[in-house]
Amino acid sequence: MHDRIIADTSCLILFHKIGELDLLRKVYGSVTTTPEVAQEFQEELPEWILIEKSKTSDCKIASN
After folding, report:
1. 55: how many CB neighbours lie within 10 A of its CB?
2. Do 56 and 5 contact (CB within 8 A), yes or no?
3. For 33-39, which contacts have Cβ atoms below 8 Å and span 24 or more sequence positions?
4. From CA 45, how far away is CA 48, in angstroms rounded?
5. Selection from 48, 44, 36, 46 nearest residue 9 by Cα
6. What whole-number distance in Å separates Cα of residue 11 and Cα of residue 21?
7. Nearest to 11 by CA among 26, 29, 23
8. Any residues with CB less than 8 A from the CB of 29 and at least 6 apart, and which?
9. Beta-bridge partner residues of 50
10. What is the DSSP secondary structure assignment for residue 21, as one 8-state letter?
């Protein structure tokens, strides 16, 4: 299992559009995104999506 999953905007938008944003939580538990991605997403994020600056480069990226 990965220590941290970072979602980009396209991943969040696509899952949101098909009503399956919760699928990310079911698969990964929690998801982290950056403040820039959260702003670009333009929707309220669920509480299980953490917003913080990325501190490491060895994170798994969840994207389409």
Report:
1. 7
2. no
3. 33/6, 33/7, 33/8, 34/6, 37/7, 37/8, 37/9, 37/12
4. 8
5. 36
6. 9
7. 23
8. 48
9. 32
10. T
Q: Indicate the length of the chain as a whole number.
A: 64
Q: Would you state the structure tokens that stand for residue 54, as one six-digit string? A: 């990325």
pLDDT-above-70 percentage for the chain: 77
Q: What would the pLDDT profile of 3-16 be if each residue is shown by its tens digit?
A: 667 778 998 999 99
Q: Which two structure tokens, joined as six digits, stand for 27? A: 């698969």
pTM of the model: 0.72
Which of 32-37's residues contact partners 24+ apart within 8 Å by CB, and which partners?
32/4, 32/5, 32/6, 32/7, 32/59, 33/6, 33/7, 33/8, 34/6, 37/7, 37/8, 37/9, 37/12
